[in-house]
Amino acid sequence: MDRGFYHFNFWLQLIEKKVDFITRIKKGAVIKVEQVFTDSYGLRDRKIRLGSGTNKTPFITLRLIEVRSGKTWHSYLTSVLDPHVLPPYVVADLYRRRWRIEDAFNTVKRLLGLSYLWTGSINGIKLQIWATWLFYAVLVDLGDAVADELSLSFDDISLEMIYRGLYHFTMARLKQIYSEIACTVKVSDKRCKNSWITAIAEYQASKIQKLSPAALDNQAAAQAELDHHIATQAQAVAPELLRIVEISFGDHEYYAGNQLVASISHDDNHLTQRWVVMVNSKEVFRTNTVMRCHRFICIHYSPTLGLPALCFGTTHKPGHHSQFAIRNSQLKH
After folding, report:
1. 157-206 confidence digits (pLDDT tens)
2. Which residue in 159, 168, 128 sits closest to 141, CA to CA?
3. Closest alpha carbon to 114 in 132, 140, 138
4. Tens digit of each residue's pLDDT (9 = 90 or more) over 105-135
5. For residue 257, which of 245, 265, 266 has the smallest C-alpha distance?
6. What is the largest CA-CA distance in the chain?
7. How far is CA 141 from the centre of its chain?
8. Any residues with CB less than 8 A from the CB of 1 and at least 6 apart, and which?
9. What whole-number distance in Å separates Cα of residue 292 and Cα of residue 145?
10. Structural contact between residues 29 and 46, judged by C-beta atoms closer than 8 angstroms
């Protein structure tokens, strides 16, 4: 939260509703230290009591985290009192990202057009909002894949440039299709995507109209035979889908049949790369998002070879090896 929400009564209401928060402490605030978790050259982590006991500033117990950067100390307050649940450097990193929600609002309103409503009906407005945010989620996932491919941080990737690049990618693909089918229909406007689509559709329609009914029957039979052959071959060589078992929010297990292939866990003690792929109780991959761990497992898994460096080689019951006793749900890959 920004320091504009520096109100003790408001904080107490959040705590009563079990809503945790991070904010900055004001200069000159009177504190009483109740417990010291860490006190080092670059980090101080303490449980403190703020307030004077009046109606305006009632007593409230919080954690005060102070991180040194050069000659400057940066101070943060949080309602999470256990440093094992929320490590101090994570507090600083989360507060630094407090404007990410504003960046998201700016993107969907300015770039994706949510600042204008297309209809006046409630149902239409809901559909527009849902569709826009779903597309934003796809755009973020695409940006994460680009960052992964370029070995860059997600913060270094421009979602706006990716969004604007989709037009050029689509145009290049349409021109490739136009060339591959040897299309002869003239494109009315080569800068317009719909003109290319119309030309390709008209050419395909003209080719179909030239076929005789007998030729159409023969073509349909041949196509059916080809589809059956492809389906048969695909069934024979298709990789077995990995089964994902969610143990908890931060822990997932991947199974091929009854064989435990890999697991994903969450490391609260790491500052930036908290998602880990584990195999045989050993860490084999670490990154900053669970989707990258998921891609790593899916890319490296082979139904015939297993995961050459990532195979348990034993049979387990789902969730048997984990310290968690309850499975929340089972997901299909």
Report:
1. 888 888 888 878 888 888 888 888 888 888 887 777 788 888 888 888 87
2. 159
3. 132
4. 888 888 888 888 888 889 989 999 999 999 9
5. 245
6. 93
7. 6
8. 21, 22, 23, 98
9. 8
10. no
